[in-house]
C-alpha cells in the first residue's frame, strides 16, 4: 500500500507540473493576444512584471520536471531534495502573487505545489514551508485588498479556497508521514524478528551439534546451561535433575546438575525454590512474573521460566531460568527453552544409554566390579603415574575351595558367594584403589601409592573381613575363606607384567601354606 501511495503522489506531482507549465504558456498567449488586439494588457500588468512571472514560473517548472525525469535521479527520499522542491514552489508563488495577486487561476495551483511534499520529509520542516506559504498568500491578499476599492468578494473567496486547500493538504501530508513512520516501524520490527530467528537457528544448530558429540551427562548439561545463559541472558539459569530413592521409598531429591547461581544461594534454591517449581510445573512449561503464591528465596527475582525435562512420559528434571527484571522473560523465551528442553531430554536419554553401555563394557555383570579388560588398561595407566614417583602394589585374591562350593550348593549359590565377596572387598578398600574380577573366582586390587608393608596390612584385613562372617541366603549359610598374594613396584619388578607375575606367585605360596592367608613376593 505504501508503495502504491508513493507512485500516486509522484503521478500527481508530474500532472501538476504539466498543468503549471500549460497555464504559464496560456497566460503568455493571453497577454500576447491582448497586446496584438487592443494594444495594451487587459489586466494592466507591466511587461516587466509579466516577463518576470513567466520566466520564474517556466524556469521552476522546467527544473522540477528535469529532476523528476533525469536518468540518474538524486535520492528522492532525502531532505535536501525535498527542500529544493519546496523552495521552487515558494519562489513561483511569491513571484506570481506579486504580479497577479488573485486575478489568475494560477493562484489555485500554489497550494498543491506546496502540499505535494516528499514522503520522507520531516513534519517540522513541512510545517515551516506551509506557514511560509500561508504568510505569503495572506500578505498578497492584504495588498490586493489595499489596492482594490471596493473589496472584491471574488478575491476573498479565492483567498479562502487557497487557505482551506493548504490546511487540508497539510493534514494529508501529516497522514502520509504517519503512514511512513508506521511502515518503517513495522519493517524494523520484522527485521528484528528475523534477526532473532536467524540467531536462534544458529544457536540451536550449535546446541544440536554439541548434543551429538558429547556423551558425558555432566559435560552436556554444563554446555547446554552455558548456551541458555548466552542466548536468553537471564540472571540465573539452572538445570535440575530429580533422583528417585527407590530403596527408601522416599519422594526423591533434587540435584543441581548445572547452574550459575552463587554457591551460598544454592541450598536455598534446592530446598525452597525447586520443590515449589516442581509442584506447579507442566509439560508445556511456564513463563510468569512472581506472585500468586510463587516467590523465590532470592527476593530480587521478578520473573521466571520453568520447563520440564521428560524421558518418555516421566519427568527427570527441569530447566529453571530467573530474571531480576519485571517481565524480563516472555513467551518467545519460553518457546526457545521448549526447543532446548526437547533436544536435551533426548540427549539425556541417549547419554544415559551410552554411559550404561560404557559401564557394561567395563564392569563385571555378576559382581559389579571392573572386569579384566578394564583392569589391564587401568594397570598400565597407574604404572605410568607411579613410575619414578611412588610405590604401587598389586594384590590377587582367590576364593578357597570354590569348586567344592559350586558342587555342593550349586552354581546359583556360588555366584551369590562371589557377589558377596566383591561387595565386602569394595566396602573396605580405599577410595583410590581399583578392584576387578580377574578370573572365575579371582579378584585383583590395584593399590596406588602404597608400599609393600602397608599393602600387606590392608589386604590381610580384607581377608579377615571375608572369613569372619558367614555368607548365606534363605537356604544356605557358610563360612568362606580367601587367599591373597601381594607384590609391589619397584620392589618386585619395574613393569606391570613383572609385578603382576610376582603377586600371582605369592598367591600360589599362600595356597601351598594352607589357604586363608596372605603372602607377599
Structure report:
- This protein is α+β, with helices and mostly antiparallel strands and 521 residues long.
- It has 14 helices and 12 strands.
- The strands form 3 sheets. It has a 5-stranded antiparallel sheet with strand order 2-1-5-4-3, sandwiched between helices.
- Helix 3 packs parallel to helix 5 (123-147) and helix 6 runs parallel beside helix 9 (331-362).
- It is rod-shaped.
- 31% of the residues are buried.
Notable traits:
5-stranded mixed β-sheet; rod-shaped; 60% helix; 521 residues; alpha+beta
User: Helical percent range?
Assistant: 55-70%
Q: Based on DSSP secondary structure assignment, what is the total number of beta strands?
A: 12
Q: What amount of the residues lies in strands? A: 5-15%
Give the spatial strand order of the biggest sheet: 2-1-5-4-3
Please summarize the sheet with the most strands. 5 strands, antiparallel
Give the low-pLDDT segments: 71-77, 116-123
Amino acid at each position: 500500500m505504501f508503495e502504491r501511495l508513493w507512485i500516486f503522489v509522484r503521478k500527481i506531482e508530474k500532472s501538476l507540473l504539466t498543468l503549471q507549465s500549460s497555464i504559464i504558456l496560456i497566460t503568455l498567449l493571453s497577454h500576447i493576444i491582448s497586446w496584438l488586439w487592443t494594444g495594451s494588457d487587459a489586466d494592466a500588468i507591466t511587461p516587466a512584471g509579466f516577463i518576470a512571472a513567466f520566466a520564474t514560473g517556466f524556469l521552476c517548472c522546467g527544473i522540477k520536471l528535469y529532476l523528476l525525469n533525469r536518468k540518474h535521479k538524486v535520492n528522492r527520499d532525502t531532505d535536501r531534495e525535498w527542500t529544493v522542491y519546496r523552495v521552487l514552489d515558494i519562489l513561483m508563488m511569491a513571484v506570481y502573487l506579486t504580479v497577479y495577486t488573485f486575478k489568475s487561476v494560477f493562484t489555485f495551483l500554489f497550494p498543491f505545489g506546496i502540499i505535494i511534499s516528499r514522503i520522507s520529509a520531516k513534519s517540522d520542516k513541512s510545517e515551516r514551508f506551509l506557514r511560509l506559504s500561508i504568510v505569503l498568500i495572506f500578505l498578497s491578499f492584504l495588498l490586493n485588498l489595499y489596492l482594490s476599492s471596493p473589496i472584491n468578494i471574488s478575491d476573498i473567496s479565492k483567498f479562502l479556497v487557497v487557505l482551506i486547500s493548504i490546511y487540508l493538504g497539510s493534514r494529508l501530508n501529516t497522514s502520509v508521514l504517519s503512514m511512513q513512520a508506521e511502515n518503517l516501524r513495522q519493517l524494523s520490527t520484522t527485521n528484528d524478528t528475523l534477526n532473532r530467528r536467524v540467531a536462534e537457528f544458529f544457536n540451536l544448530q550449535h546446541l544440536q551439534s554439541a548434543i551429538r558429540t558429547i556423551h558425558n551427562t555432566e559435560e552436556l548439561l554444563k554446555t547446554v546451561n552455558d548456551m541458555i545463559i548466552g542466548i536468553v541472558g537471564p540472571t540465573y539459569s539452572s538445570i535440575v535433575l530429580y533422583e528417585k530413592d527407590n530403596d527408601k521409598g522416599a519422594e526423591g531429591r533434587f540435584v543441581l546438575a548445572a547452574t550459575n547461581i552463587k554457591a551460598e544461594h544454592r541450598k536455598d534454591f534446592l530446598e525452597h525454590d525447586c520443590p515449589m517449581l516442581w509442584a506447579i510445573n507442566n509439560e508445556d512449561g511456564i513463563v510468569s512474573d512472581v506472585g500468586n503464591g510463587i516467590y523465590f528465596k532470592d527476593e530480587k527475582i521478578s520473573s521466571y521460566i520453568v520447563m520440564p525435562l521428560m524421558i518418555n512420559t516421566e519427568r527427570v528434571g527441569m530447566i529453571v531460568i530467573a530474571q531480576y527484571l519485571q517481565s524480563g522473560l516472555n513467551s518467545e523465551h519460553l518457546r526457545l527453552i521448549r526447543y532446548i528442553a526437547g533436544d536435551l531430554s533426548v540427549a539425556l536419554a541417549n547419554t544415559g544409554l551410552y554411559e550404561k553401555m560404557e559401564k557394561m563394557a567395563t564392569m563385571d555383570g555378576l559382581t559389579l566390579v571392573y572386569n579384566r579388560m578394564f583392569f589391564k588398561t587401568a594397570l598400565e595407566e597407574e604404572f605410568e603415574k607411579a613410575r619414578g614417583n611412588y610405590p604401587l602394589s598389586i594384590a590377587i585374591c582367590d576364593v578357597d575351595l570354590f569348586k567344592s562350593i559350586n558342587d555342593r550348593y550349586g552354581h546359583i549359590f556360588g555366584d551369590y558367594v562371589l557377589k558377596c565377596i566383591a561387595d565386602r572387598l569394595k566396602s573396605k578398600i580405599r577410595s583410590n584403589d581399583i578392584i576387578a574380577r580377574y578370573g572365575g573366582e579371582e579378584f585383583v586390587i590395584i593399590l596406588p601409592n602404597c608400599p609393600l608393608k602397608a599393602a600387606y596390612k590392608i589386604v590381610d584385613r580384607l581377608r579377615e573381613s571375608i572369613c569372619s562372617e558367614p555368607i548365606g541366603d534363605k537356604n544356605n549359610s557358610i563360612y568362606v575363606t580367601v587367599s591373597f598374594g601381594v607384590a609391589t613396584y619397584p620392589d618386585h619388578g619395574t613393569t606391570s607384567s613383572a609385578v603382576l607375575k610376582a603377586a600371582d606367585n605369592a598367591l600360589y605360596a599362600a595356597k601351598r601354606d594352607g589357604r586363608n592367608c596372605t603372602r607377599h613376593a
